[in-house]
Amino acid sequence: MRGGYVVGALAGALVLMATAGCSSGATGSDDAKGAAASAGATAGDTKPAASTATIAIAPADGTTGVKPTGEVKVTAGNGKLTSVKVTGPDGVEVPGQLGADGSWAPTGTLQVATAYTVDALAEDAKGAVANARSGFTTLTPDKEAGTSDNIADNGEYGVGMIVSVTFKRAVKNKDAVLGGITFEASDGTTVKGHWFGDKRVDFRPESYWKPGTKVTIHYKLKNVETSPGVYGDVDKDEPFTIGRSQISTVDVNTHKMAVVRDGQQVDTVEFTAGKAGYDTWNGVMVVEAKEGTTRMTSAGVTKEGSGDEYDLVVPHAMRLTDSGTYVHGNSWSAGVIGHSNGSHGCIGVTDTKTGSASAPAGKLYDSSLVGDVFKVVNSKGKTVDPSNGLSGWNTPWAQW
């Protein structure tokens, strides 16, 4: 039931009272008229019996700092509620309903930092009505979750795009947060969320998106308590579109990449992958950023003094993992590209030192979108962890 709770019996009672007050045995006799007048005066002087029903409204009148959920309740004693209306400054009624015990409570979440008014009516066994009015103000959050995601309004993404939502503060009420982030797809695609720890939740469909799908993320988190004393900070709609399909299969054995666009192979790209000890991850990885020209160093990759250190500026860099796996231009390995594996885990494609749009790496870069899929097969490396970049496609749907 949306809005306040009203029972028709109250309206009926008021109608009956009005009818009784207007009826009289009028005749042409002066005595009769006098008697009727006397009777009318007597009736008019009679006050309605006070209702024995009582109304209790929680929180108490004037309370501030009320949580948006779980604190508002209206109950009747020695009678039953016939109407409850809770309204904010805009006059819109808060949806609510009666419970099994006859009490009324909201069915939704109130807004934070908002003043509300409660008007309630109750009726006793004789139909006499009691009324009560109260007001309270919801809390103003002291702490916010710090919500962000990897989507730009009206952006275009590849079919493998995974929406990753992160929080600066750890989330305890995960189900409540999931309820405040919903997806609407033009083709009805179902989207589910999967938590990686307490500060990140990723969303994807069961299979890759269909090209041309229009998607809107509905964020309604401002009134959601994400953790004790911490509230969401986003209420907005965020639209994006899925572009054409481009899925590249990277075969480490053959050193060749098959680029398939909308179901048709459009290119074969030679590359070099990770050498022994630095094997490229197997599995599905997704372009999470197109970074252009990027500096790459061996810090955290090779041991100092090993003779295998590097410090390079590389063109046409597309990031595949948070740990540093890229598809990028390579101008220094002409002898191994297409023949053997010589990188430290990245996928190197022929390019010039500063990057050329006409080089294989430049063409691949320009044809790619964030959200495009690169599937690595036949590497001696392990399968990439689903939390490493946008690699959630490596988690089965039943476990997502």
From TrEMBL:
Pathway in which the depicted protein is active: Cell wall biogenesis; peptidoglycan biosynthesis
GO cellular component: extracellular region
Taxonomic superkingdom: Bacteria
GO biological process: cell wall organization; peptidoglycan-protein cross-linking; regulation of cell shape
UniProt entry tagged with the keyword Signal: yes
Entry's Gene Ontology molecular function annotations: acyltransferase activity; peptidoglycan L,D-transpeptidase activity
Name this polypeptide is given: L,D-transpeptidase-like protein
Source organism of this protein record: Kitasatospora cineracea
